[in-house]
Amino acid sequence: MRYLREHDVQVVEVNQPHAHTRRRVGKSDPIDAEMAGRLYLAGKAKAAPKQANGIVESIRMLRNARDSAVKSRSAATVQLRDIIITAPQETPRSAR
Question: pTM higher than 0.85, yes or no?
Answer without folding.
Answer: no
